[in-house]
Amino acid sequence: MFDGPTGKQKLGDLFDGKSQLIIYHFMFQPDWTEGCKSCSLIADHYMPSIIHLKQRDANLVTVSRTAIDRIEAFRKRMGWTFHWVSSLNSDFNFDLNVSFPGDVQEQNKVYYNYEMTRSFPSTEGPGLSVFYKDPDGSIFHTYSCFARGLEQFIGVYDLLDMIPKGRDEEGLVYGMEWVRYHDKYGDESFKDIYVELLSPKNKN
Q: Is residue 103 a contact partner of residue 123, using CB atoms and an 8 Å limit?
C-alpha cells in the first residue's frame, strides 16, 4: 500500500489501466527535506518519456520511502508532473532492496545490486523495477536494475561522451559530484552531503 497525493493506492493501481509498470526508486531518506540530486537528474530525463510510454501499454511511477507531503513539496519545487507515491508505511523498498535497515553509521554491509556491498552513504539506494499485470490481476516482478545500470537513462552522459573532454571526472570526490538540482546550478550555497561522506578521510 502506498500513500499518494490523493490517498491510498495499491501496487495494482499504479498501472493506471496499463499492463506494464516501471517504477523508479527515487532516493529520499525519511529525514531529508529534498530528494537525491542524482535521482533528480534521472527524473529530469524520464519525465518527458512517460507520455510516450503510455502509448505502448506502459506507465512509469516514482516511489520513495518518505512522507508524501515532503514528496509533494519537492516535486512541485522541481516542476515535475509525474505521479510520485510514498512507500514509507510499507516494506516495498526493503522487498526490492533499495532501502537498508538501521542507521547509516550502524551499517556494515548491505545487499544491493545483487550482492553484499560496503554500506551506503544513506539508508536508501537508487533503482528501477518493472512489473507486469495479467488480465486476471496477477502481478509479476520481471526486471530490476541498480547503480550503474541506471546510467542508460541519463542522456546527458551520452552527449558528454561525444565531446573532447568527455565526462571530465578527474579530481572529483565521486563521479556525480558536479551534478546539481536543475534549480541550483550557480548557487554557491549548495552543499553536497556525499562529498563529506565519501571523501577519502572518511573511508575506512
A: yes
